[in-house]
Design brief:
homodimer; alpha+beta; Glutaredoxin; Glutathione S-transferase Yfyf (Class Pi), Chain A, domain 2; 2 domains; four-stranded mixed sheet; 8 helices
């Protein structure tokens, strides 16, 4: 098995690295040089036609892409500790929260990065007004999540899960690009301290 | 169990309806009046704090939202016919394609609808330049998907899956809002005819 990725703070490859630490799976990342655009090369596109990382290449040559799908594969081959839930309701709950973290939390951060941040301005066409509007969308998402965390220690409930990995990598990336956690959000801040104390945080 | 939804062509509630037909599960939809903004009412927000449909309310009162999480719950309680895959690699493959359909195919359609379509212009602040740019993004996505379908009958491979439901509901919604399939894309067109011939297509 070969895992193609890139160093942090890119959130998607980091999610897989964090997941592997939580699972106790030792699989070093094969680094893709994104500056040299290796992920857009013909050779890499044969593994992932979208030219994206992370991508997991299995021993028979089949390649799986999409962060959560890759992590789900590891969950299947090594079920414990469970990060996607064990029962029907646990699985549905974790999947719901993974998706909420992606659609509600990560989407505005991604849009801000893609359409407003100076780093990407040099690389791609930006729609700045739209990009800027995502600052408020992310603030709203933080406020909502802070309230949700009032009654539970982790994103999907009592147990740490893939949803925490998705949320933590998003929040850390957002901080890095200039959108920190609003310190008024006590529950969100406490949750972030809780997940940041885990060994996976340094992945 | 109570399934909250709304009539087509809204793609997310339709996905759950299609999934239930494919599974042979008889669960009528409890219709939410979106014009009256029932989904944003305090009563409904107690079930889903984001005020979104579909939402599945279980007999113990717990509510699951997010289309794919709801379908995954049904897959767990009634595994056959499998729509998310049976083995580790099948599950990873389906999840990868579900996500690709959401992120690559649905995102530009959703952005176009949200930021360019006259219907939403009356309801929300639009960033029209950004919205319009998604026409090209969706055209690129169609082209990519057409090529991917050159060698397989269904989105995730040989078997019909949740990824087909996600793709079909996206393509049909896109057509409805003015972004039809480019007839030059023969594989995509043939795939669409194939999935449209299934009983679930009328859900």
């Amino acid at each position: 098995m070969k895992l193609y990725g890139a160093p942090m703070p890119a959130p998607n490859p980091r999610r897989v690295r964090m997941f592997l630490v939580e699972k106790g799976i030792d699989l070093p990342e094969t680094r893709i040089d994104m500056i040299k655009r290796e992920h857009k090369s013909e050779e890499f596109r044969a593994k992932n036609s979208l030219g994206q990382i992370p991508t997991l290449e299995l021993d028979d040559g089949e390649a799986i892409s999409e962060t959560v799908a890759i992590c789900r594969y590891f969950e299947e081959i090594k079920p414990e500790p469970s990060l996607f839930g064990r029962t029907a309701i646990e699985k549905a709950r974790v999947d719901m929260w993974v998706r909420r973290m992606e659609f509600v939390l990560m989407t505005p951060v991604g849009n801000y990065w893609r359409h407003f941040h100076p780093y990407t301005a040099a690389l791609l066409t930006q729609y700045k007004d739209f990009g800027e509007s995502n600052i408020q969308a992310y603030a709203n998402a933080q406020k909502w999540l802070d309230r949700e965390l009032e009654t539970k220690p982790f994103i999907a409930g009592e147990a740490y899960s893939m949803a925490d990995i998705c949320a933590q990598s998003t929040v850390d990336f957002a901080t890095w690009i200039g959108l920190p956690i609003d310190p008024e959000h006590k529950n969100l801040t406490a949750w972030h301290a809780r997940v940041s104390a885990r060994p996976s945080a340094s992945a």
